[in-house]
Amino acid sequence: MFGYRVPAPDEAMLISGGRYGLKGAPFRVVIGHGTYVAPMFRKVRYLTLAMQEAEVEETCVSRQGIPLKVRAVIAFKVGNDEESIVNAGQRFLSNQDQMSILTGRIFAGHLRSIIGSMTVEEIITERQKLAEEVLDGSKAEMGAIGLHVDALQIQSIDDMGAGYIAAMAAPHKAAIQRLAKIAQAQADQASAEAQQASVRKQAAFTRETSITQAEYKAEVDKAQAAAAQAGPLAQAEAQQSVIAAQADLAQRQAQLRQQQLVAEVVRPAEAEAEKVRIMALANAERTRIQAEAAASNNRVALDQMLINQLPQIVKEAAAGLAGANVTVLNGADGLGEIAAGLVSQGLTILDSVRNSVAQSPGHNGQQPAPAPAPALNRQPS
């Protein structure tokens, strides 16, 4: 907009050409906002409010008369209040670089004055005190020209080759060197002790390792010896077990062979002997029957026929017995009982035949009953 002006954030806008201003100031101050300025009737100028820097390098003399070259840096700016802006504007508006030059000169004078009242020792050891006294001494003068000091930093102090500062530092330097040597000696001693301890530990470790290896070798030798002794012993025990197993197997084989001999030789022989005895008993019985038949007149022919068949019946029964697996539980008595049973069965068959003949149609008019089948008392083996 034509005629409307706005200052920068770090600037103060000074408007002249009117009859207004603080305490008769020739211009009006505008900060932080814009305003309308009538063209041709008002004039606008700008004053910087930014931070500025001034360097001071001054030769001063201490209270002992020792010359010192002091370097310092001052950080300052125009004050933010309207009064400070008016004061600074009236002095530096046309040449604002002059603010740094004038500030350096003001601080150089106060620096010479304060250092002249202090000893070198105080200046060296109390730099903060020196800076505060210089600031306090220059505050009134800087405020009168509208400037505000933010900081003062003493950068260096030099005695320009006089050697006073070096001599002053010599005792401290010697003490520090002495302490450094003591510390170095202690460090060397600690290092030597640590090295000796390391050597002792290494020797102890080597000794323990040798002992451990010897003990390990002894244990290994002992184990190997035990193993060497245990080998033949274990082999002998194994052979003994094998022999015992073989003996047990031989005994079992003998028992099995004995059972086979009984089944294959003894039992057939006993059966054959029993057959012979039964045949003898049958022959004797035939002789007796023949005698009885000879004495009988009525049944001679029939008895003779039956008598002739009885040996065949007994033989058949004996043949069946010879082929059977007969178990004799009570020895010779058992065999006798079997033989007697066969003969008895033969006689029973004979009596049955006689009765059948007697009951035939020639005797009582009935058909003969069938003869009962012979029954042998056999038991499985």
List the helices and strands and how they pair.
Layout: E1 4-5, E2 11-16, E3 27-30, E4 35-36, E5 43-48, E6 52-61, E7 67-78, H1 82-92, H2 98-116, H3 120-125, H4 127-144, E8 147-158, H5 164-295, H6 300-323, H7 331-358
Antiparallel strand pairs: 1-4, 2-3, 2-5, 6-7, 7-8
Helix pairs in contact: 2-4, 5-6, 5-7, 6-7
Task: Provide a brief overview of the structure.
The chain has about 375 residues and is of the alpha+beta class. It is about 60% helix and about 15% strand. It contains seven helices and eight strands; from the N terminus they run βββββββααααβααα.
Report on the architecture of this protein.
By secondary structure, this protein is of the alpha+beta class. Among the domains are: 51-166, Band 7 domain (Tetrahydropterin Synthase, Chain A, 2-Layer Sandwich); 265-358, no CATH class. The protein contains seven helices and eight strands. It has helices spanning 82-92, 98-116, 120-125, 127-144, 164-295, 300-323, 331-358, and strands at residues 4-5, 11-16, 27-30, 35-36, 43-48, 52-61, 67-78, 147-158. It has a three-stranded antiparallel β-sheet, covered by helices on one side. The protein has a three-stranded antiparallel β-sheet with strand order 6-7-8. A two-stranded antiparallel sheet has the order 1-4. A hairpin with a 5-residue loop joins strand 6 and strand 7 (67-78). Helix 5 runs antiparallel to helix 6, helix 5 packs across helix 7 and helix 6 packs antiparallel against helix 7 (331-358).
